[in-house]
Write a structure and sequence with these properties.
Distance between the termini: 38 Å
CATH class of the largest domain: Alpha Beta
Structural class: alpha+beta
Low-confidence stretches: 1-24
Order of helices and strands: HHHEHEEEEHHEEHEEEE
Largest sheet: 6 strands, mixed
Mean pLDDT: 86
Strand order of the largest sheet: 7-6-11-10-9-8
Number of helices: 7
CATH topology of the largest domain: Nuclear Transport Factor 2, Chain: A
Shape: globular
Number of domains: 2
Length: 330
C-alpha cells in the first residue's frame, strides 16, 4: 500500500504530499547523458532524411539555443501546427512568444550544439517526413531546488519541403493539487497567511512594473541574482525593460501603433516548499489595452508559469520566473 501511495504521488508531481515526505523521494534512474558530438547525429545518406535532419538541427541550434527567431521562417512553415497544450499554432505566435514573452536574446556568434547544453541532445531519429530529437531535461527537486535529477524530453516534427509543419512533445497542463491537511500551528498558519498575502502583492507589483515599463520597480521585485529565462541579475533585468521600452518608443515615433499592454495572471496557486521558499503556479495572458468605443483589446500570447519566490528578511522576492516550464524546447 505504501509503495502504491508513493508511486501515485510521483505521478501527480508530488503536489499532494507534505514536504517531509517529498524529501524522502529521489530519482532511482541512471542520469541522462547527452551525445558527445550531437551535431554528428543530424546527417543521413538518404537525401530526404538528410534535408529534414539538417532543418531539425537548425531548429535545435539556431532557434532553441541561439534564439535567432528572426530566421524562424527558414525552418518553420507559416501554419506550424502545435500539439503542446500551452502553445498556439502559427509561425507568428511562436516568434512572438520567444521574443516578446520569454524575451530570449539572440546569441552572437551562435555556438554549435554541445553535450554541456542543459537540454543536450541524446539521440536523433528520422523516418519519412518525421524527425524526433531526444534531449536531457534537468528537473529540480520540489523540496530542494538546489538539487536536481535528469529525465528525457522529446520533440517530434513533421517536415514539408524541408520546413517543420507540425510539432509534438510530452508537455502537459499544470496539475492543481488538492488542499493539504492542516498541520500548522496557529502561529505558523497566521504567518503563512501573511506570507501568502505578501506573495500575491509581489505578483501584483511585478505586472504593474512591466505594464508601466518601470525598469527600477521591475528589477526590485527580483532577488539580486534573480532571473527571467536567460536574463539574470537585477542590472540585466533593468536593461531588458529599458531596451523594450525604448523599442516601443522608437516604433511609436515611426507612426506604428504601439498600444499599452496588460500582463494578466490568474488561477494562481502558492505551493510552500519551506517557510522561506514557495512556488507560484498561474496562467498568464498578454493583452493589448482596449475600451468601449475604442480599439478592441487583443490577446497577444498566453500560457502558464511557475515562479520560484524566496523570503529575504521580511520581504518576498522572485528568484526565478519561468513562463514556460514545460515548453523550453518548443
Amino acid at each position: 500500500m505504501k509503495l502504491k501511495t508513493a508511486l501515485l504521488a510521483a505521478a501527480l508531481g508530488l503536489a499532494a504530499m507534505p514536504v517531509a515526505a517529498q524529501a524522502q523521494m529521489r530519482a532511482l534512474s541512471d542520469p541522462v547523458v547527452p551525445h558527445p558530438d550531437p551535431e554528428s547525429l543530424f546527417t543521413s545518406d538518404d537525401p530526404l532524411l538528410h534535408r529534414n535532419k539538417q532543418a531539425a538541427l537548425h531548429i535545435q541550434r539556431n532557434l532553441l539555443k541561439c534564439n535567432e527567431w528572426s530566421r524562424a521562417g527558414e525552418w518553420l512553415t507559416d501554419a506550424y501546427i502545435q500539439h503542446n497544450p500551452v502553445a498556439a499554432s502559427g509561425l507568428e505566435g511562436v516568434i512572438y512568444y520567444f521574443t516578446e514573452v520569454a524575451k530570449r536574446p539572440p546569441l552572437d556568434p551562435c555556438p554549435a550544439l554541445s553535450p554541456e547544453d542543459p537540454n543536450g541532445v541524446v539521440a536523433v531519429q528520422a523516418e519519412g517526413d518525421y524527425v524526433t530529437i531526444l534531449t536531457r531535461r534537468i528537473v529540480p527537486y520540489a523540496d530542494d531546488p538546489s538539487q536536481s535529477y535528469t529525465t528525457t524530453w522529446f520533440d517530434t516534427w513533421r517536415f514539408v519541403d524541408g520546413k517543420a509543419d507540425e510539432h509534438w512533445d510530452p508537455a502537459t497542463l499544470p496539475i492543481t493539487a488538492p488542499p493539504q491537511a492542516a498541520t500548522l500551528t496557529p502561529e505558523a498558519a497566521a504567518q503563512q497567511l501573511a506570507d501568502r498575502s505578501a506573495i500575491e502583492e509581489l505578483m501584483w507589483d511585478y505586472v504593474r512594473a512591466i505594464d508601466t515599463w518601470d525598469a527600477d520597480a521591475y528589477a526590485e521585485v527580483f532577488t539580486e541574482n534573480g532571473a527571467f529565462g536567460q536574463t539574470k541579475g537585477r542590472e540585466a533585468l533593468h536593461n531588458m525593460v529599458t531596451s523594450m521600452a525604448a523599442g516601443r518608443a522608437e516604433r511609436a515615433a515611426k507612426g506604428e501603433a504601439v498600444p499599452p499592454l496588460h500582463h494578466v495572471m490568474s488561477n494562481q496557486t502558492i505551493d510552500w516548499v519551506s517557510p522561506t521558499r514557495a512556488v507560484v503556479n498561474y496562467y498568464w495572458q498578454t493583452v493589448s489595452r482596449g475600451s468601449p468605443g475604442g480599439p478592441r483589446p487583443e490577446m497577444l500570447a498566453q500560457g502558464w508559469g511557475r515562479d520560484e519566490v524566496v523570503k529575504q528578511g521580511d520581504k518576498w522576492l522572485i528568484e526565478n520566473r519561468n513562463v514556460a516550464p514545460d515548453a523550453e524546447t518548443d
